[in-house]
Amino acid sequence: MQNTLQPDLPLRDVVFYTLRQSILTGELKPGERLMEIHLADRLGVSRTPVREAIRRLELEGLVTMFPRRGAEVAQITEKSMNDVLEVRRTLDALCAELACDRITEDGLASLKQACDNFEQCVATKDAKKIAQADVALHDIIVEATGNQRLIQLVNNLSEQMYRYRFEYIKDSSQHETLVKEHRIIYQSIVDKDKDTAASAAKTHIDNQKKAIIRQIRLESQRNHKNSQPT
Length: 230
What we know:
Elements: H1 11-24, H2 36-43, H3 47-59, E1 63-66, E2 70-73, H4 78-102, H5 105-124, H6 127-144, H7 148-169, H8 175-190, H9 194-227
Antiparallel strand pairs: 1-2
Helix pairs in contact: 1-3, 2-3, 4-6, 4-7, 4-8, 4-9, 5-6, 5-8, 6-7, 7-9, 8-9
């Protein structure tokens, strides 16, 4: 865990964003205890900004507090995932529809480049690079709507969405599906085909949901098996 943020940020923000990024990318795993002293030592800070960061992360739903046990990285549950993805599914479909009407020629060129870049990142098999390329691609579609309220709503979900998206992207068997779905979304926007664009955006989320549910259930089975007496 290291700080890659702007050095002019207040220390409490540096600690908060560093811990949040570690949770979103899985460096700090679901269920892992967040020990203030340990984290402070790793980050080279006092316990105060760590304590403040943990409180902020709890408000974002990324950390769970337990009496006498302290703070833990929040579990990725089917309920929490559904809450995020069912909202994002509707917003992504709307963004795709609006982009069909509103995207500029420069925007289309950027979207094409983003699709190409995503495929190049898939070839590296680096989950972080793939996730970043995926976010960049979808951001272009969202920005193309020109609707500031919609952009704000999507941005508010982005951090939570990233956590689930990253879990999906770690599964390399899904990469070719992602590439194909991106191509369909791009071409439908080029063709100004709203129905196909919206449908493809929804399918994109639905497939993520199915894959993540499989992972959640497999992890639950492993944890249950490991907890059984030998």
